[in-house]
Amino acid sequence: MSYTYDYPHPAVTADIVIFSIRDEELHVLLIQRKLNPFKGAWALPGGFIQMDEDLETGAARELAEETGLTGIHLEQLGAFGRPDRDPRERVITIAFLALVPSDKLVLSAATDASDAQWHNLSDLPKLAFDHENILNAGRERLANMVSSDIAQSARVVFKFLPGKFTLAQAQSVFEIIKGEALDKRNFRKWIMANWALTDLEEKTQGGRHRPAALYSLT
Amino acid sequence: MSYTYDYPHPAVTADIVIFSIRDEELHVLLIQRKLNPFKGAWALPGGFIQMDEDLETGAARELAEETGLTGIHLEQLGAFGRPDRDPRERVITIAFLALVPSDKLVLSAATDASDAQWHNLSDLPKLAFDHENILNAGRERLANMVSSDIAQSARVVFKFLPGKFTLAQAQSVFEIIKGEALDKRNFRKWIMANWALTDLEEKTQGGRHRPAALYSLT
DNA sequence: CCAAAAGTGTTGCAGCTACACCCATGT
DNA sequence: ACATGGGTGTAGCTGCAACACTTTTGG
């Protein structure tokens, strides 16, 4: 049986970064590959998405097949699709993040071959494909979940502003996104304290009111 | 020319949720579809990923082709792949988020046909495919960027814990993820104040030390 | 009685909120 | 002169960080 299309299609897989804590350390579940490419290397559990299943369903199915773990909450981590990430053909993978409590470690009981093993994050083998990137994305996501500083992610919000902007424009952008009015003085203190703005020593002109100082984000 | 595979492959597209602020309101850039399915309906700009290009590159290319916008920072929003989201064949889309400042609106100048238009988020037409879902994911992401409350995303961290856990176990999980030691009293105050824990009125037993109270996350 | 982990309050400080008036420009 | 938006300080409060000892169990 074969499948033919008018245009080339990539293969699509789901890979799961599944973390647990063992002996007070973060561990990730890896599978030892039985086939080429990367035969013998360790890889994230995962596999091809089937044509009639949702992405998350596919990820859950692969996870169950390869590790015996079921009923695990999966959260999408993102798509990884560098053209050369798989030597066989173009493969785009949708990565998922999952966490399991230490008491759910029925692992080797459920999986027959048991080529699935927990690896300490501080002592990892070389991984197949670009799985190291994916794993790192999972680590970052996990770290961000418990960190409350806004700095990194809010930076893109400044993309709404032109290169040179006034504080009033910046305030307006934040107000629109947050959907609430902000106090002018407090906003100015906040933005000056939390973002590196450079005063361009320039003023707007043309409004029939006092000109405003222009800033740029450093 | 046609392309044949041993297993069925989905098509993969990139769609871009591109926001701007016009007249103090959030707007999103939509394209009016010229072809079936959903001919005439509005849709997010996007199109098929080519086999030799990275996901982000493909998104940027499609955005440029359809709207004339270039040099825009794209951030991955996630993959959307419900099996029935496209009536023609299985299509998985990788969505991207982009923001443009109001002064970059060279839009209609660059694009010939100009079937691209900014739409106010509070007055949207029906969208093609599942683009409404994707758009909403973009809105949420944008809102989260400027919100500093931890509540929603940190909830999954509790998946590291068994259903019944002690406060010491919870603290240990947070310490491992954050990579730093936390003060016991402050942690207890924080967790009680910010998470709905129910005291199970049960104690651990068996340790050669004082038994600990068990809690579960409500 | 000793070891091991559980449990418990207070104080100082930093950062946030609330709040009202004068300033510079164009018409 | 007036209309329009730009620019500025302070006081109270709240939430977070720092910090040490007593309690309960098992061996």
From TrEMBL, chains A, B:
Protein's name in the database: NUDIX domain-containing protein
SUPFAM superfamilies in UniProt: Nudix, Winged helix' DNA-binding domain
Organism annotation: Pseudohalocynthiibacter aestuariivivens
Family (UniProt): Belongs to the Nudix hydrolase family.
Top-rank taxon, per record: Bacteria
Coiled-coil stretches: none
Pfam families according to UniProt: NUDIX (PF00293), WHD_NrtR (PF21906)
Occurrences of domain Nudix hydrolase (ranges): 7-142
